Amino acid sequence: PEAITIQELANRMSERAVDVIRLLMKQGAMHKITDVIDADTAQLIAEELGHTVKRVAASDVEEGLFDIVDDSTDTETRSPVVTVMGHVDHGKTSLLDALRHANVVSGEAGGITQHIGAYQVVSPESGKKITFIDTPGHAAFTAMRARGAKVTDIVVLVVAADDGVMPQTVEAINHAKAARVPIIVAINKIDKPDAKPERVRTELLQHEVQVESFGGDVVDVEVSAKNKTNLDKLLEMIALQAEILDLKTNSQRPAEGTVIEAKLDRGRGPVATVLVQRGTLRVGDIIVAGAEMGRVRALISDQGETVQEAGPSVPVEVLGFNGPPEAGDRLAVVENEARARQVTSYRAHQKRENAAASISGMRGSLEQMMS
Ligand code: GTP
Ligand code: MG
């Protein structure tokens, strides 16, 4: 529903808000300056004040930004994007560290993951790449899903064999099911003397995750991030699942992707971690994400290296946004800055209107409560 506050309408016409209110009063409606009126009423008022009105529809502005519907040119195979989920301390980051021969855990404050990491791992067997996303809890994943962003092809559910299925394990299962993403279970910490992998399988059954040995179709792998046990097998199972999913893309087009996280860095300015999903993102590209725009100044790989471009399923840090976008925002490359400005100013305006509308809605209900 398109709507505008009286203040904003007056501002855009360079008229006084009281004059708008007076006109509305003539039509029999009492309004405050902060009230929201619908687009039709706003148009009537504007015309009465001698202005011509040009209404811009979302479909005009957003037109052609994303080729979501047309995937007929997606003929190249792309790497799977795997989100690692599970209860706190069950070993998500350790497992990823082991897979990529790195050590992120020891650098984390209190051993707790604070922000999202996105990495590519090359399978030693097949030489194929897998993109992994490490999540702090599920807040980020939830936020992205709530905004309709689909970034994950497969969920690796990490369950510590000595601890079993815990509340966040169940949350992760529910997320994966709601998003219709296949689960691969990594039963971790099997090196521990009190590890009970069979108990984990039984507990999973209670949450409708039926592993193969129980007659289901969910693959499970017993691993130890500590001793690097069965990591090849886990990679192999992911590769197999990816083959079944038959993931396709087109790298020969302007990039489309999703913002995984973004922040304002003191030295580098706005920095966004972006997962490129189609096309190729290049230095110099003009980009929009949510209500932010920019020109790609630098791209930094998961290895911390400066790169000139990033193709499908590749996570990169993007420098050059005018402000940090939000997690879950879709990124698109546009032809020129004028187009970028058109899109982002429309979205920024839309955002303000929505905020104003929800505030005035709140006020309305407060008043109802008072009377
Ligand atoms: P959050 O990011 O806080 O949710 O935790 P996480 O799931 O990333 O767990 P993390 O990798 O930080 O590991 C938690 C603890 O478990 C650390 O002390 C690890 O050393 C330990 N750990 C992880 N994997 C294993 C394993 O395979 N065996 C043993 N014995 N300990 C492990
Ligand atoms: Mg972690």
TrEMBL record:
It is found in: Cytoplasm. GTP binds at residues 86-93, 134-138, 188-191. It comes from the Bacteria. Residues 77-246 form the Tr-type G domain. Keywords: Cytoplasm, GTP-binding, Initiation factor, Nucleotide-binding, Protein biosynthesis. The keyword Methyltransferase does not apply. The keyword Nucleotide-binding applies. One of its GO terms (molecular function) is translation initiation factor activity. Belongs to the TRAFAC class translation factor GTPase superfamily. Classic translation factor GTPase family. IF-2 subfamily. One of the essential components for the initiation of protein synthesis. Protects formylmethionyl-tRNA from spontaneous hydrolysis and promotes its binding to the 30S ribosomal subunits. Also involved in the hydrolysis of GTP during the formation of the 70S ribosomal complex. This is Translation initiation factor IF-2. It comes from Bradyrhizobium agreste. The chain holds residues 314 to 684 of 894 of the full protein.
